[in-house]
From TrEMBL:
This is Small-conductance mechanosensitive channel. The keyword Transmembrane helix applies. GO terms for cellular component: membrane. It is a multi-pass membrane protein. Its main location: membrane. The chain crosses the membrane at residues 18-37, 71-88, 94-113, 140-160, 166-186. InterPro entries: LSM_dom_sf, MscS_beta-dom_sf, MscS_channel_2nd, MscS_channel_TM-2. Keywords: Membrane, Transmembrane, Transmembrane helix. It is found in: Membrane. It comes from the Bacteria.
Amino acid sequence: MINIYQFILSLFQRETTILVLSKFGIFLGLIFLSLLAGRYTPTFVRIITQRFAPQQVASIYNNLVEPLRNLFRIAGTLILISLSLAWIEDYHSIYNLLSPIVDLSVIISIAWLSSRLFRQFLRSYGIEIVRKFGREVDELLLVFETLANVIIGFIAVLAFAQSQQFNLIGLLTGLGIGGLAVAFAAQKTLEQLLGTIVLYLDRPFVPGEYIRLQKSNQIPEGLFGRVESIGIRSSKIRTAAKSTLFIIPNSILANLEIENITRGKKVMVLLYLDFLHILQEKEQALVQQVIVESTNSLFGIDPGSTSITFLNHQDEQQFTRTRVTFFILGSSENSLQLRKRLLELANEKISKKLFNHGIEFKLQEPTIYVESPVTI
């Protein structure tokens, strides 16, 4: 009787082992399929776009999806891997180990993809939307981009906390009560620490850059110098003239007008337009007027920097080559990218205006950008 019982128990254990191994085998197979299927996420997005917006599918895909193909693949792969975890949900030890890691990876990838998608949308369609409302395009778009990133990050934190069943209300309440007690006890110290946080988030300057501080109650004579370091409580600035070291609390710097000399970038733009015939003086005057009006009206173009040169070529084919040079100004890579996008739209505007006057030309590609930092 005992032998029969042990035999049945061994059969049951063997079947259980086979079942466990089969589930893990299926799980590993699903992981492999996720890695393969995730590579086709951009294609899947294209099919969905074609289903709901068949007329604009090419434009939407090329402007939004194509530049972010790798991010779409990563997000799609991680989502499929997250769904595959359902096969091992009964095995709590392994599931509880993998689930938070996979959930965090999925949320980060989706948040990053959403941030980049919003940025691509602003670059491709935001400018036209702003102009349709009769507003001039400026760096307000970059402010919207920053606010969107903050909102996306906040939603990502909430999503991860919800997936892990954290008690957010209790946590926020505890932090609020504790924060009030600390704030009353160390008001000045917290003010300086908050100033440090503002400087690190806003990044008006980094060590090694030259800045100018305007005259204020705290700095009556103003200050121009090189940033030596940014500390927890204060920043050190070495003056350009006397080479003395100023130590200024970060709480004061966070409330001052700061002129960053090092970041005063300007980029020289070179455009070459080949007209199909020799331009007469009236045509040259018209071309010059259209180009100047189209470029000087752009936000971020250095006023009066536009220079236009007409060169007549009489080789095998007679034509006029026009070289247009001007400067675009910016303080960061994002702002310069925005201005370059505005320039692309200005080129389209120039083409339409000249075509309406019966003047045809070819724009030489690519447009040449030459960085020209502001000298100190």
